[in-house]
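Sequence only, no structure available. Ideas?
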Amino acid sequence: MGNTTISLGEVRQDLVRAHNQAIAALSKPGTWWTGAQRRELAITAQLAISESEPVAPWVGVSTVANKLPASLTAPKIAHDVMYRISRHAATLTRDWYEKVTAEINPLAFVELCGIACTIAPVMAFRRALGLPVVEIGSAEAGQPSNKNPKILLRHNSIGFQLSGRQTKMLQSCRRLLQCQKPIE
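Reply:
I predicted one. C-alpha cells follow.
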C-alpha cells in the first residue's frame, strides 16, 4: 500500500474545525497550567510523538542537550512527564506516578495527560493522510483557574479516582497513545 497524500481541503470541514479547536485550546490557560506552559508542553508532546530516535523512557528529555529550548516556562519535570506519557505510555508504572506526583500536583498530572491525549489523535490523523504537522498557535495570556473538578470522587494512594465514564475516556486515550509511531 503506497503513501497517499491529500490536501486539507479534501478532509471533512467539521473534522478540520474540531481539530483546530482542540489545538487552539492547547495555547489557552488550563486548570493547572498557563497558556504558555500548555503550548510549550504540547510542543514537547509533538517532539516525543514525531522523533525517529526517541529518548529512552528512563531518561528525562530535559536532561538531553538541545532537545528542549534553553528557556522553559513549565518545570523541567513537566516536560519529562509529557515526553514519557506521549512516547512511552506503556512504560508508566505506579512507582513512576507516585514519584512524579511528589513533584507535580496529581491534578496537574491529569491535565498533562489531557494535553497528550489532545495532540496525539490530531498528529496521528495528519500523519495517516500525509498532511503537515499541525502548528500550535501563540499562547494566550492568563492564569490557570486552579479549580478542582466536580467529577472527582475521592483521593487514594495512586491518585484520584474518576467515575466510570471518565475512566473509560482515559483508557481510550492511553490506548491511542500506545499506538503512536514516529513520523518518518
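The CA atoms of residues 42 and 123 lie 11 Å apart.
Hope that gets you unstuck.
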